[in-house]
Write the structure tokens for this entry.
Amino acid sequence: MRSIAVIGKNFGDEGKGLATASLSRVLEKPLIIKHNGGAQAGHTVEDQAAGWRFVHHQIGAGAEYGAATLFAEHFMPDLYQLGKEVADFTQVVGFVPLLYSEKTARITTLDDVLLNMGAEAARGDARHGSCGMGIDECVQRNRAGYGLSVEEVAAWNAAELLQRLREIRTRYTRDRAAALGIDRGNPYFELLENDTVLQNYVAEVKANVGLLTLVDANRDWLSQFEHLIFESGQGLLLDEDYEAYAPHLTSSKTGMHNPARFLEKRDLTLDEAIYVTRSYVTRHGEGPLPCEVKRSELPGVGEDLTNQPNEWQGTLRYARHESMDAFFAPVEQDRESVRLFLSTRDTKLLILITHLNETGNRLYFEEEDVSFERVRREGERRGIRCTRI
């Protein structure tokens, strides 16, 4: 087996879906491993010749080419949303994707999403820029001892699952809502008290969990695949430990950490880490964005069809890269953060630059426009290979 991690170098929206799908299309027997975050990802795969375009949230980008998807232990699937995504995918592509999940993956619940939306609404102008998909609330609930695994959802009948969710509401959710400032004046307060909404949620989730095949993803099971492709969500600058941009972060590890941990447990190694970046920088949501400019100030840059304005993250923002040192810094820091993992001992690092077709094969930096060749040479000096797509 050969293993590859596809990682966003910046704030997300760099082209991870394109990279993952491109690998899945040409590599033999690929398995796409979703290892962080959950349904908040939006990875676009497009086939202009065939006339289709699909935005992936939980299904691995590259499933169009027959690649299977595995929800790893640290992925937080939203089983309510999964049904619609699978139905939409099947309509576009013509077949049902093959989806596996580790039994221990912890689901994102309806109340996680409602708490997330309610908290952002309560913050008003001080929003964190969340996607409103409940990822941080899922993390907080699990830390409080109220986890709910995919295996439990599959094993319990609807009445048992409903009872468990009611218990979580009584013992945890109400106190959490109060702590977040979600009161009766909040538009999501009533939904957090509505039992019919919860019953409908359970019916949908019980139907959708059947879309997953639950597995013990040990080394023997993985051996049926020739390539393991770790498809990361979000970007390195949104990693939960990247304190420079707190609190505007995601509640997960966005770099090599999760793939390294997954592989280490199975006595496997990470062969390559591919860091994806545009030739410029984007950010969807609140938070600092160094060297921010209007899109019109970046020659050749067109409208982004995936990241349209929405209630939770506003409008996609644009910026130039900072200095050359800042360009390589996230990759170098990620390499340093996993140095104790034996699974990354010989990992090759590669920066994949997208959207160069918009910028005339140049990267937009704060001080000047820089040719791809110059960036490539600087990468070689640092032991990081640069390529383009």
The longest strand covers residues 227-235. The mean pLDDT is 94.
